[in-house]
Design brief:
CATH topology: Rossmann fold
Strand order of the largest sheet: 2-3-1-4-5
Shape: globular
Keywords: ATP-binding, Cytoplasm, Kinase, Nucleotide biosynthesis, Nucleotide-binding, Transferase
CATH architecture: 3-Layer(aba) Sandwich
Main location: cytoplasm
Strand content: 5-15%
Enzyme class: transferase
Bound molecules: BIS(adenosine)-5'-pentaphosphate, magnesium ion
Number of strands: 5
Largest sheet: 5 strands, parallel
Number of domains: 1
Family: Belongs to the adenylate kinase family.
Number of helices: 9
CATH superfamily: P-loop containing nucleotide triphosphate hydrolases
GO cellular component, one term: cytoplasm
């Protein structure tokens, strides 16, 4: 079982590269952002709570995210080839909770893959996506807040995963296929 954390700032390509990984390796995928956006669309209580945070570029509280994550993970059953965690963890408590949740099931994260992209490029990509798809948090003001949250709350996870001995750095700037090739080299090496 190859459980993989795909890690990076807003707009770094986590979702884009996850699609390719799902296709090539038959992995399952948990995008906590997609889960929350679907709850918002369906008008659930969770969606109503989440909307306030997302529109303001802030993170949803850890305890709420952790309980969602465990239930989605368990929905894949015990026979899966592995799960891509996209957009989770985003804080050190979330990383600790993920480790504990997997430990309790006899599982683990095999690799944390960091997509490293400069902020000017992230801003360009997200503004463009906002114009094309209208994702509510893809406007300049909210993107700036998301990047601050990333720097302050999420970036420290790189050191955390280095200490776990499973951090892999990838240059996330450039051609999609070159980036995917670098990701495959990590996955094939697990
Ligand atoms: P989430 O949905 O996870 O958003 P995000 O982390 O801000 O990242 P994005 O989905 O915007 O970017 P991505 O890295 O997936 O890049 P993509 O492939 O789309 O989270 C949204 C919100 O939900 C958070 O702000 C928070 O409020 C809440 N939330 C989610 N998880 C949470 C958690 N664990 N705890 C608490 N709160 C949580 O690519 C971006 C664009 O760039 C696309 O248009 C794509 O086509 C383009 N692109 C991709 N790769 C390239 C490339 N190589 N060259 C040029 N363009 C490219
Ligand atoms: Mg995404």
């Amino acid at each position: 079982m190859k459980n993989i954390v795909i890690f990076g700032a807003p707009g770094s390509g986590k979702g884009t590269q996850s699609d390719k990984m799902i296709e090539k390796y038959g992995l399952n995928h948990i995008s906590t952002g997609d889960v929350l956006r679907s709850e918002i669309k369906n008008g659930t209580e969770l969606g109503k709570t989440a909307k306030g945070y997302i529109d303001n570029g802030q993170l949803i509280p850890d305890d709420l995210m952790v309980s969602i994550l465990a239930s989605v993970y368990d929905s894949f059953g015990r026979e899966h080839k592995g799960v891509i965690f996209d957009g989770f963890p985003r804080t050190i408590p979330q990383a600790e909770a993920l480790k504990k949740m997997l430990d309790e099931r006899g599982d683990k994260v095999a690799a944390m893959i960091e997509l490293d992209v400069p902020e000017e490029e992230l801003m360009k990509r997200l503004i463009l996506r906002g114009q094309q798809s209208g994702r509510a948090d893809d406007n300049e003001e909210t993107i700036k807040k998301r990047l601050v949250v990333y720097r302050n709350q999420t970036l420290p996870l790189i050191e955390w995963y280095k200490n776990e001995g499973i951090h892999h750095h990838i240059n996330g700037l450039g051609e999609l296929d070159r980036i995917f090739g670098d990701i495959c080299a990590v996955i094939d090496g697990i």
